[in-house]
TrEMBL record:
<dbReference type="GO" id="GO:0052689">
    <property type="term" value="F:carboxylic ester hydrolase activity"/>
</dbReference>
<feature type="domain" description="AB hydrolase-1">
    <location>
        <begin position="156"/>
        <end position="258"/>
    </location>
</feature>
<feature type="region of interest" description="Disordered">
    <location>
        <begin position="94"/>
        <end position="135"/>
    </location>
</feature>
<dbReference type="InterPro" id="IPR000073">
    <property type="entry name" value="AB_hydrolase_1"/>
</dbReference>
<dbReference type="GO" id="GO:0055088">
    <property type="term" value="P:lipid homeostasis"/>
</dbReference>
<comment type="similarity">
    <text>Belongs to the AB hydrolase superfamily.</text>
</comment>
<dbReference type="GO" id="GO:0006654">
    <property type="term" value="P:phosphatidic acid biosynthetic process"/>
</dbReference>
<feature type="compositionally biased region" description="Basic and acidic residues">
    <location>
        <begin position="100"/>
        <end position="112"/>
    </location>
</feature>
<dbReference type="InterPro" id="IPR000639">
    <property type="entry name" value="Epox_hydrolase-like"/>
</dbReference>
<dbReference type="GO" id="GO:0005739">
    <property type="term" value="C:mitochondrion"/>
</dbReference>
<feature type="compositionally biased region" description="Pro residues">
    <location>
        <begin position="53"/>
        <end position="66"/>
    </location>
</feature>
<feature type="compositionally biased region" description="Low complexity">
    <location>
        <begin position="115"/>
        <end position="125"/>
    </location>
</feature>
<feature type="compositionally biased region" description="Basic residues">
    <location>
        <begin position="126"/>
        <end position="135"/>
    </location>
</feature>
<feature type="region of interest" description="Disordered">
    <location>
        <begin position="48"/>
        <end position="77"/>
    </location>
</feature>
<dbReference type="GO" id="GO:1900226">
    <property type="term" value="P:negative regulation of NLRP3 inflammasome complex assembly"/>
</dbReference>
<dbReference type="Pfam" id="PF00561">
    <property type="entry name" value="Abhydrolase_1"/>
</dbReference>
<dbReference type="GO" id="GO:0042171">
    <property type="term" value="F:lysophosphatidic acid acyltransferase activity"/>
</dbReference>
Length: 400
């Protein structure tokens, strides 16, 4: 800790940041990892595992080879809903006939300050002045939800980590699904893990990172793609599912929070100068360990170290937290999604209350919330077997 304080003090005096991490000198591939240049000088480390499928004639071949026709798909779900946003912020979601859940309108009902009221117990509608909605969106599409097995050559699983993490936090999940025959892709966000760290704050805004994830998705996507995100990474999964509805087959959100628009806090510790954050880095790491894990023993400390989590420079940490501005990602944006979503929540999570994931389950059209009693924010590290089982069941899930 004394070294961190000394370095931080010197960087304040000299006007330098202790976080200046330049682009990678080499883009050579290493065992199990590749380096993708999404923009000139902006290089992301990616773990990309492709299973070998020699199999009999007609079985799926390597990427780029002709794929044999699959059996007729089942599990067609009709998404037909009307989403009304009123000027006071109230949101009314109506699942219209022939929708997945036509009997239960989801979302908040307008109140007296909003718009249409509900009938009283006597069956007489309350007399309230109707106000003109701010926006009305109608979603009408048909989605085919099928089981995705490791033997299917058109299935890819994408894993996206959150702030301060790296693709290494997914080690147990990547190994689990790779052994089952799935093609998996897991990138390091810019400035995280072994990806290059541009020295400008604008490189870490939500939109900059989202464009990186778009480039990775377009590079490796196939016909059926499943997105798995953790914490901040959930926002990028939602973004991709909204941008590519025909390619995103299912989404898994782990401790991602509620369907609210992102906006950085003005009174956050991450608004302090990078040199001050560098001095406080031991305290921040301890706070993350305490809030991110249900227990704080030697095992959890080792998991944090092996997962290469919270091992980013103070500059990258500050820029990433301050760049979480995404006004489009509100409840209306999430309500438009017609993709099945599995919500996984660690009960002891001190960063994301379970009520936020419950609200997310109410807004989404097809959503399942699973709470893990023994887990916290880093539940994929704490309870890998439980998480792997839940994820695999959802990947194989197919509606009747």
């Amino acid at each position: 800790m004394l070294t961190s304080i000394t370095d931080g003090f010197l960087c304040c005096l000299l006007g330098k940041t202790p976080n200046a991490v330049g682009p990678l000198d080499s883009v050579e591939s290493s065992d199990g990892f590749t380096f993708l240049e999404v923009k000139p000088g902006r290089i992301l480390r990616i773990r990309h595992s492709v299973p070998e499928r020699p199999g009999p004639p007609g079985s799926p071949g390597p990427p780029g080879s002709p794929r044999s026709p699959r059996s007729p798909e089942r599990g067609a779900v009709r998404c037909k809903r009307r989403i009304t946003l009123y000027r006071n912020g109230q949101l009314l979601i109506e699942n219209l006939p022939d929708a997945a859940h036509p009997e239960t309108p989801r979302g908040q009902r307008p109140d007296a300050d909003g718009d249409p009221g509900t009938p009283d117990p006597a069956g007489i509608p309350a007399k309230r002045r109707k106000r003109k909605p701010k926006r009305v969106v109608t979603v009408d599409c048909k989605k085919r939800i099928t089981s995705c097995k490791g033997t299917h050559g058109d299935v890819v699983l994408f894993f996206i980590h959150g702030v301060g993490g790296s693709l290494d936090i997914w080690k147990e999940q990547l190994d689990f699904f790779s052994k089952l025959g799935y093609e998996v892709v897991a990138p390091d966000l810019a400035g995280h893990g072994c990806s290059s760290a541009p020295p400008v704050a604008a490189a870490y805004t939500f939109y900059a990172l989202a464009e990186d994830m778009r480039a990775v998705f377009k590079r490796y996507a196939k016909k059926r793609n499943i997105l798995i995100g953790h914490s901040y990474g959930v926002s990028f999964c939602t973004f991709l599912a909204h941008e590519y509805p025909e390619l995103v087959h299912k989404v898994i959100m782990i401790n991602g929070g509620g369907p609210t628009a992102l906006e950085p806090s003005l009174c956050s510790i991450f608004n302090l100068p990078p040199c001050v954050l560098h001095c406080l880095s031991p305290c921040l790491a301890w706070s993350f360990l305490k809030a991110g894990f249900a227990r704080q023993g030697a095992k959890e400390k080792q998991l944090l170290k092996e997962g290469n989590a919270f091992n980013v420079s103070s500059f990258v940490l500050r820029a990433t937290m301050s760049g979480q501005y995404w006004p489009e990602g509100d409840e209306l944006y999430h309500a438009e999604l017609a993709v099945p979503v599995l919500l996984v929540h660690g009960m002891h999570d001190k960063f994301v209350p379970v009520e936020e994931d419950q609200r997310m389950a109410e807004i989404l059209l097809i959503a399942f919330l699973k709470v893990i009693d023994e887990g916290s924010h880093m539940v994929m590290l704490e309870c890998p077997d439980t998480v792997n089982t839940l994820l695999h069941e959802f990947v194989l899930w197919e509606p009747d």
